[in-house]
Amino acid sequence: MAAAAAVTTATVFILLLSSSTSAHNITQILSGFPAFAQYNSLLSQTKVADEINSRQTITVLVLNDTVVNSALKSRPLDALKTLLSVHVLLDYFDSDKLHNLPDGSTTSTTLYQTSGVAPNRDGFVNIADAKGKVSFTSATEGSKTTAFFAREVKAEPYNISVVEISAPIEVSAAAGKGVNLTAAMENAGCKRFAAMVAETGVASDYDGAKGTGLTVFAPRDDAWEAKGMPDWAKVAEEDLQTVLRYHAAPGYYPMATLKGMKGEFATLATGGGRRFGIVPEASGEFLLLETGVDDARVVNTIVDSAPVTVFLLDNVLLPVELFGNSSAHPPSGSPSPLPAPEAPTPPGSPSPPVKQPASSPVPTPPKGPSPAPPAPSEEVPAAAPALAPADDGEPKSRGDRVSVETLPALFFGLVIGVVSMSLF
């Protein structure tokens, strides 16, 4: 009985884990419906698709290409992101639920409300069923009803529902407006960073990237004088400009997009045969940016106005090309070519042999009885992710943090152990 109960409990835990780690892909779902090709493209351009894919229990209200071409095409990207975020409900509504609402109406929270900048009640949508005709209206007082239920496109209870509506849900904040990046950074406690960007002329590089996409990582003021930081007064102006360019990426990367990235991304300092890349590492609600010398935690989002976003950091990002080991990384002004990518090593395969320097020949073993073989090293589970090699061939240390990718393997190991103990 005890063994059976343990097996049943283990099975339930496994099913729960499987459901909690399952994910949907709104881009892939809509790719099967040509009528929503334009809307699907806008979800990708504004990165709202990444936000949708990072959540569960969600309803996406979509518009067909005819409506998109007539009502959305002329709007700026930041206004489109606001509008599309309003069309993502943080609850599950399929056709059956929409036509059987308790008391005939309800109010749902939208993705726009989670941005923290939704004015009035723009972040909520009122849903009402009147004699079988379901309407969707912004919860802001005075909003007019223009959007109605057209059809159910896709339903995966109770994970994701895709519903076509007849027209956009208009909100007061969807007109789009410019953002003063300098003022926003100063208000967030990044006055020194904003001043340095302006004084060194790097602001022109930022301005040049804003039109196609710009992501800025702004360290707070106290980070520049933290322990381990260089004496910035003695850093060459050219290198200081490189550090400031290193704190920006040529692309629009909101939080959900960064968390979904694998491997490093380029910065405005990348070029001339130098990487100047940053590796994002997500762990639950936290996001770390790793440079190979230090790391910084993303504290919050200062600005998210597509195609520009600005994040507040708790530390200054030090590029390994300037502040790494001088023997492994040439100083500024001596660019080295990017190393050729290495082929991935299959799980369980032995590590490649370490190359001996030409000046250090391998010694010939002495004659006589062979010495005792060394004690076997502890076996690394196949599920553990391999560390990406740094430019000097050494693995990048990730400290004592446990990657979220290893959690399912650890959980299954624990469940198997409990079942084994119960059986024996």
TrEMBL record:
A Pfam family reported for this protein in Swiss-Prot or TrEMBL: Fasciclin
Q: Which InterPro entries does the entry mention? A: FAS1_dom_sf (IPR036378), FAS1_domain (IPR000782), Plant_FLA (IPR033254)
Compositional bias ranges of the Low complexity kind: 377-390
State the similarity comment: Belongs to the fasciclin-like AGP family.
* Stored PROSITE patterns: FAS1
The protein here is known as FAS1 domain-containing protein
Secretion signal span:
1-23
- Output compositional bias ranges, type Pro residues: 332-376
**Which Gene3D superfamilies did the record assign?**
FAS1 domain
Q: Where is this region: Disordered?
A: 327-401
Q: Just give the chief location class.
A: membrane
A GO CC annotation recorded here is: plasma membrane
For this UniProt record, give its keywords in alphabetical order, as a comma-separated list.
Cell membrane, Glycoprotein, GPI-anchor, Lipoprotein, Membrane, Proteoglycan, Signal
Q: Domain named FAS1: which ranges?
A: 23-141, 177-317
Give the membrane topology.
Answer: Lipid-anchor; GPI-anchor
Function per UniProt: May be a cell surface adhesion protein.
Localization per record: Cell membrane
Give the matching PANTHER family: FASCICLIN-LIKE ARABINOGALACTAN PROTEIN (PTHR32382), FASCICLIN-LIKE ARABINOGALACTAN PROTEIN 8 (PTHR32382:SF5)
